[in-house]
Amino acid sequence: MMPSDGRSAEGREALNRPVGNNPSDGRSAEGREALNRPVDHNPSDGRSAEGREALNRPVDHNPADGRSAAGREALNRPASQGTLDRDLLDAFVPEFEAEAVRLAMVRDAAAAGRALDQLRAMAAALGAPSLATLVDRTAQRLDPLDWPALHAGAEALARQAVAIGAAGTDLPLAQPAAAQPEPELAAPPAALVDREMLEAFAPEFATACDRLAKASDAAAAGRALDGLRAMAGAVELTSLLRLLEPAAGLLDPFDAAALHALAARLREQAARIVAAGADVAPPEPEPVPDVAAPVAAALDAELLAAFTPEFAAACTRLATAPDAAMAARATEALRGMAASFGLASLGAMLADAPPDDPAALPGLAAALVGHAAAIAAAGHDLPPPDSLPAGRRRVLVVDDSAMMRRLVREALALDADFEVVGEAADGIQALAAMQRLAPDLTMLDIEMPELDGLGVLRRWALEGGGAVVIVSSAARPGSATAVTARRLGAAGIVGKPSGALSPDLRERQGVALLRTARRAAGLPVEAGR
Predict the structure, then answer these.
(1) Could you give the dihedral angle defined by the CA atoms of residues 483, 489, 493 and 498, in that order, rounded to the nearest 10 degrees?
(2) Dist CA 181 CA 528 (whole Å)
(3) How do residues 279-335 score in pLDDT, each as one tens digit?
(4) CB atoms within 10 A of CB 350
(5) How far apart are CA 207 and CA 224, in angstroms?
(6) Which of 281, 353, 407, 418 has the fewest CB atoms found within 10 Å of its own CB?
């Protein structure tokens, strides 16, 4: 029979045995007691009382993930509280700010989309969720396209990047930003406009309106309209942008009288804005017949169709007159033709003809032909151009390849009507040279460092003069680049047949280049030499 303490007879005997009689295993009485302890006193899992207590503790006292309170707090801490690498920030902020400025300067949705993609990638690389969120909000302004909102979004991105750089950590966006940007980004019609900005804007806008009113063809009018849209968008003058909305329909077919009337309305509205110091609503639009009413009596279409080629032939005789007597006779013939049709503008252009310099005859003849063609397209007389080209055409050659610049220069040297007055190796140099030299014609590459050819065209459309011909392998006929260049006002496009460096340009493209250059410069193509 097993006693209640659960020990065997040998165990009890060992405990009662004198120490000196202990077996040879060397264990003490306590050791043997431990060996013979009942099972319930010596659990098989070997845990102490504290261990068993921990196992039986409620779950909320012993979290299953084993993390301490400090660990759980660190995991749940918002990411924005993390400090960003200072070296990375110092490199990131100026690049991100520059990209935001580029977004504010673009003038088409495709370029804006590319700029936003770049900003999104940069924000992700830095690990700044606030910038990524702000990029996504700004991207919503692409469809439908809202230029003022895009510009405001670009400014907000630049400000947030600078603030993150100063703080060294990502910063939360203002709470109302998700609900309230729309009324702020699309300024109400009566929003006050900075007085200094208005004082700088008014004369430039008036000059651009004058260019629109005096445009003699659709290309010149399109450039003037692009400049006016850009200026109105930069100052966020919604009323002017609304007046400009229907202007594209006046270019094809070209309606000089309606464009002249539109220029007058834009000038008047800009004057109202300056006087009020705010973007005020324009007056009720005049009826369409009044806006589109011709400034001169309509001309018979059949008579114009017969007149134009005869007048062009007489202009060719003027351009190729071998001596002063022949030039005088050709001039008198042209005056008589203009008077017979009552075309006062052509008569005014011929008032001081023929010029004393025989080299100016081709330029005068080309200007007369171009103006006569514009009159035929409009169906009525037009204001004469501001000035007539005279003498040799001054040309600026722009290409990042020195060899290509030399080849284009040599091709132009074959024509006595052209004189290369300068060269530029990138878009920034090109804009400076265009401002300094005021060339009659610029031969412009597309793919260049610093600023590409399309960027130069956008700036030139706002403030440049003369004509531009694209010489580039990136602007093949029908390509998106060619279409954009034409929309921005390029007078002609010549492709590079063998890529960026084409030593065969003179042989394979020399004739095409000269014909395109003469046409863009207003010279008779048949007179090339």
Answers:
(1) -70
(2) 58
(3) 888 776 554 444 333 445 677 777 878 888 888 888 888 877 888 888 888 888 888
(4) 22
(5) 10
(6) 281
